[in-house]
Amino acid sequence: MTIGQKKRLSYYPDYSGYTSYTNKYVTWESSNEDVATVDDKGNVTAISPGRSIITFDPVGGPLLFCDVTVARIPPTAISLPATSTTRVAESVTLTPTLSPSNATATFSWKSSDESVATVSVDGLLTAVGEGSCMITCSATDGSGVKAECQVTVTAGTVPDPGNHEWVDLGLPSGTLWATCNVGASSPEEYGDYFAWGETEPKDAYNWGNYKWMNAGQSNGYQINKYTFDDGQTRGCWYDGNGNFIGDDLTELLPEDDAATANWGSGWQMPSYDQITELYDSEYTTTEWTTQGGVNGRRITSKSNGNSIFLPAAGYRDDTSLRYTGSYGLYWSRSLGTDFSSYASYVVLFYSGNSWYNYNVRYEGQSVRPVRVQN
């Protein structure tokens, strides 16, 4: 068998002399489930190269055995990102892709200039000094297949007065994403939570204490800033004749942007277009993973192998902190297009999926800044 292949075992034993046998009571067992598994119907699935003995035990009848060997499929090709750009002292993991997809291999790694970058036996690239070098990944099975990645290392200093770090994911827009959330000092920390259009965290998040709520009011029809002609004529952004009288602001101004207010004028919350670009499968891959003991999503560039980690920080509703470790909700600076109070586009993710949505503006959510583009 080969990795991923499935086969059903059939059995034709001679039960003469086994008068107590009944087909109702049978068990299947694999001697090595790392190599092959078997279900209660006798369906065998090949997992990894090696050997496993499948045992069929009809209670009251003779034991039957099947010797399963899972063959290793050698790769015919290896691919790596063609280029990778990083900064001094940063690290990024290079992950080879094998062809065919069910091939297996072990690798050796080599840097053409270890004064620029080193690479570990696991493909962990560490930037040492400015310059360029070639990283080579070779299969060790004698097939001779290999892949190369041109690495460019730039200066380790970040051109930002607040010294907040960013990552270049090679996106078409040129957007540079911060490595951690506002209020955090590392990628794994949750950081602070902000209502949309507010710049400070607080103890409770509700309509009653939302900054852009009319005095004495506590519902989504009494918002007095960042409104548009959404057809919701009950809202205070319409007059008694149904005419729109709001401000028609659809993106946060710098003074109401949590990233700008906390990190300085070089940073802002991402737009809807920047978020959709970040999650576009043409440019990046995304996976649910654990980093530093924290659940979240890692987003990796297809063009240069650089990545960012978004922790599943949950969100705050009134005084409660909900779904930490299970869900991540991150604001954009853009209003949605349906209803002014269900304001901002937000990226929402969990272990099984990621998508974009609107959310009520008063909830406390995470902010991952981007560099302001000139």
Question: How would you portray this structure in words?
Answer:
- The protein has 374 residues and is mostly beta strands.
- It has helices spanning 258-263, 272-278, and strands at residues 6-8, 26-30, 36-38, 43-46, 50-58, 64-70, 77-79, 83-87, 91-93, 97-99, 107-111, 117-119, 124-127, 131-139, 146-154, 166-168, 176-178, 267-268, 284-291, 294-301, 307-311, 315-317, 320-322, 328-335, 344-349, 354-358, 370-371.
- A four-stranded mixed beta sheet has the order 8-15-14-11, with no helix packed on it. A three-stranded antiparallel beta sheet has the order 1-4-3, with no helix packed on it.
- A hairpin with a 4-residue loop joins β3 and β4 (43-46).
- The longest helix is centred in the last third of the chain and has 7 residues, at 272-278.
- The radius of gyration is 28 Å and the shape is globular.
- It starts with 5 loop residues before the first strand and ends with a strand.
- 34% of the residues are buried.
- Mean pLDDT is 88; it is low at 18-22 and 157-161.
Distance between the termini: 57 Å
Shape: globular
- What is Rg? 28 Å
Enumerate the spans where pLDDT stays under 50 for 5 or more consecutive residues.
Answer: 18-22, 157-161
How many alpha or pi helices? 2
Structural class by secondary-structure content: mainly beta
Features:
374 residues, 4-stranded mixed beta sheet, 27 strands, single chain, 3-stranded antiparallel beta sheet, mainly beta, 2 helices
SSE diagram, text form:
Layout: E1 6-8, E2 26-30, E3 36-38, E4 43-46, E5 50-58, E6 64-70, E7 77-79, E8 83-87, E9 91-93, E10 97-99, E11 107-111, E12 117-119, E13 124-127, E14 131-139, E15 146-154, E16 166-168, E17 176-178, H1 258-263, E18 267-268, H2 272-278, E19 284-291, E20 294-301, E21 307-311, E22 315-317, E23 320-322, E24 328-335, E25 344-349, E26 354-358, E27 370-371
Parallel strand pairs: 8-15
Antiparallel strand pairs: 1-4, 2-5, 3-4, 5-6, 7-10, 9-13, 11-14, 12-13, 14-15, 16-17, 18-27, 19-20, 20-21, 22-23, 24-25, 25-26
